[in-house]
Design a protein that fits this description.
Length: 226
């Protein structure tokens, strides 16, 4: 039987390609699948140096840490009856050479992520179920469905704005909409101290953007409107 705290299973793992270029962020569960299959190795930062482990040696090291009481609170662990293993923060794919593409898919989910789940009109945060997409310049006026003309809007603001421009509706935008760069793909958790070891694999703009703007925490409710 395997037990793990919810946070351990939800931990994020940075994936590098064979050339140590950051590729994507995956779940701890997915990382363990890759490690057990032998498709990846662990890259661990130790005293400012990177050390590689295969899954077996990582597990053994974890058992020693456990035996000597050297675990610390910043770590996530998965414990089973027969073994325990620390969730790695970084893994490297041993057979993957490609460099990730720099585009971000234009879809509802990524627009909400770009806007940090905030309605761009009332500037409050909403769950996805209470957000909608708004054409800043309405389609009836030739507004296009593009990164620079679509924003997240709560249902109430979207209904209030109707088929008008923000100026006509007396509303202002929190941020001018634009196409995001790859930093969008990083989870907000990157701002957590747990993930500082990722820093050297991310571009300065990816890192600063996430750390300085990890999403405002002002959850609000909104009214449904059509
Ligand atoms: Zn709103």
């Amino acid at each position: 039987m395997v037990t793990a705290s919810a946070s351990a299973l939800q931990a994020h793992v940075l994936t590098l390609n064979r050339g140590y270029v950051a590729v994507q962020i995956i779940s701890a569960r997915r990382a363990f699948c890759l490690l057990i299959k032998g498709s990846a190795e662990i890259v661990n930062v130790e005293d400012g140096h990177y050390r590689s482990y295969d899954f077996e040696s990582w597990r053994e090291t974890g058992e020693m840490k456990t035996a000597f009481g050297e675990r610390n609170d910043a770590e996530d662990w998965i414990n089973s009856v027969s073994f325990c293993v620390e969730v790695p923060r970084i893994i490297r794919l041993l057979r993957y050479d490609r460099v990730p593409q720099h585009g971000v898919k234009f879809n509802r989910h990524n627009i909400f992520r770009r806007d940090h789940s905030h309605c761009q009109y009332c500037k409050r945060r909403f769950p996805a179920s209470q957000l909608s997409l708004d054409h800043v310049v309405p389609r009836s006026r030739g507004g296009r469905t593009t990164w620079d003309n679509i924003v997240s809007a709560c249902l109430k603001c979207n209904a209030a704005k109707g088929g008008r421009t923000p100026r006509e509706a007396g509303m202002t935008l929190a941020n001018p909409p634009r196409k995001p760069n790859r930093s969008l793909l990083l989870p907000q958790a990157v701002a957590s101290k747990k993930y500082t070891c990722w820093q050297s694999f991310l571009t300065p703009s990816q890192w600063t953007n996430q750390v300085e703007n990890p999403g405002r925490q002002t959850a609000q409710t909104g009214n449904r409107a059509s």
